[in-house]
Amino acid sequence: MPDHPPSIVILTGAGISVESGLDTFRDKNGIWAKVDHRELATPEGFAHNPVKVHDFYNKRRRQLRDTRPNEAHHALARLEGAWRDNFLLVTQNVDDLHESAGSRRLIHMHGELNSALCEACGMRGPWKTDMSTYSQCPHCSIIGRMRPDIVWFGEMPYQMERIYRALGKADLFVAIGTSGNVYPAAQFVEEASAAGARTVEINLDTSDNTQLFDEVIRGPASTTVPAFVD
Ligand code: BV8
Question: Per UniProt, where does NAD(+) bind (predicted)?
Fold first, then answer.
């Protein structure tokens, strides 16, 4: 038995939002199958063509307005309510469906569609509907340096220290709807295992790192996650 209250870390990926109507990234109809991630999800792509990158994120932001959390998001919010302080939900998703379902102990490690980042002063704040390449930062007043608050390839994900601290004392680690393709998130299972956690994968299909988990549950998140949680 652990010498502290049992602690849970959950990692979610695009698969948890599929049944809410959002696309994944790496499936054959996924986002990166239709557009080039080097053009749209790298700092170099943004420097080369900011208008194109803003356009891509503006469309995805608009899509969010009509999207609702599904049973999997709701189940994780219930789990947090039952577990309280010894719970951390880390999402790679940039949608706001976990918050809409009621999750609060939540880290958006790859940023958020509804947030803006000023490249000049580092301010992070709400994305206003009329923001564009030519917007002025509400904090430092510099014009033309506002970007989507998204962690692009080659950039450091958010709150890594807090995440590794939680993984280092986790008793249970569950990865839901993620392909295990993008680092550092894909390596969290090994961190948790090294800390002695039981590790569980919940995914529709086989992920790239299935073999690293103690237990694998196959099926759509909207049914498998509530069944696991309740
Ligand atoms: C970093 C935001 C240093 C954009 C994203 C070689 C060259 C250059 C770089 C690298 C390299 N090798 C490694 C790297 C690092 C790189 C990386 O991992 N590249 C990979 C691709 C090789 N990583 C980085 O650059 C990261 N930063 O490493 O910094 C560092 C060093 C040490 C410690 C810390 C940091 C930054 C990565 C951030 C990338 N940002 N996107 C946007 O959203 O527009 S990528 C992106 O992939 C997504 O946003 C998402 O966040 C992430 C993971 O994707 P998934 O969520 O897993 O989605 P995917 O489509 O892949 O899978 C969906 C799964 O759902 C499938 O398995 C499917 O079966 C399942 N599913 C489907 N339906 C359902 C379901 N499951 C359940 N129910 C269903 N109904």
Answer: 92-95, 177-179, 203-205, 221
**Gap between the terminal Cα atoms of the chain:** 22
Give the tens place of pLDDT for each residue, 51-60. 999 999 999 9
Domain spans of the chain, in order of start: 1-22+69-110+156-230, 30-66+118-150
Give dist(CA 56, CA 52) in Å, integer: 6
pLDDT of residue 199: 98
Kindly state if the Cβ of 155 falls inside 6 Å of ligand 1. Answer: yes
Residue 59's CB is within 10 A of a number of other CB atoms, namely: 9
Q: Is 225 in the pocket of ligand 1 (CB under 6 A)?
A: no
Q: What is the mean pLDDT of residues 8-33?
A: 94
Annotated binding site: 57, 60, 92-95, 118, 121, 137, 140, 177-179, 203-205, 221
- By percentage, how much of the chain surpasses pLDDT 70? 98
Confidence of residue 27 (pLDDT cuts 50, 70, 90): confident
pTM of the model: 0.96
The DSSP element (H or E) to which 198 belongs, if any, is strand 198-203
pLDDT of residue 117: 96
Q: 30-66+118-150 has which CATH code?
A: 3.30.1600.10
According to DSSP, the residues that pair with 72 across neighbouring strands are none
Q: Name the fold adopted by 1-22+69-110+156-230.
A: Rossmann fold (3.40.50)
Dihedral over Cα of 114, 32, 204, 202: its sign = negative
